[in-house]
Each structure stands twice: as C-alpha cells, then as structure tokens.
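Case study 2.
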Amino acid sequence: MSRSSCSLAGSVGLIVASALVLLPPASSAAAATCVSQAEYKAIHSGMTIQKLGKVLDDQVPFAVKEGKGNKAFRWYDACPAWQPDLDVVVRYHQAPVGRRTVTKKALDVYTPAG
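Prediction:
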C-alpha cells in the first residue's frame, strides 16, 4: 500500500469518527418530541422549572396558560405508546419573587380557550 493511500484512509476514518461524535443519540431525538412514562414519573411537586426542563430534555410546551392567582399551566405531548389520547399538564406556582415550582402534574386532554 502506498503512503498516499494510507494517509487518505486515515483521513477518511478520522472524518467518519468525527461525524459519529457530533450526531446526537437516536433516543434523545425521539424523547424531545413527547413526554415518556419515565419522564412523567420523574416530575414531582416542589421541583423548579429549571429541573423540569432537565427532566424533559428542555422540551418546549405546546401551550402555556395562566391560571388564577399565581398559578400557571404548561402542556406537553404525551408519547402515544403509553398515553395516545392524553396530554401531560404541569401546574406550577409563579412567585412574584423567587423560584417557579411545580405544584401538580396530571394527564388530561388539552382544549384551547375559544
């Protein structure tokens, strides 16, 4: 084998290895679109919104609603494999000063106000 073919093969291997490192794992891509049963079980009262974001892999809620007083609600899609007809709703306390904390979680059907 000549020197140029060895360096070319080494370069191609390095490029392929670099591409594999940059690709996200397949499970994180799927997890970003819906709330799994394990993620739902990890949500608990008292956790901060930042911790909720980490549990849900920084998933963006499809709806945010203001409630009475300092309550607000975030709605997320539940994975169809375990809850095909329901959505995940997280109620949290919006303190005027301080941290926003989860007060309740539930499975429900989202109905937009109209």
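The chain has one domain: 27-108.
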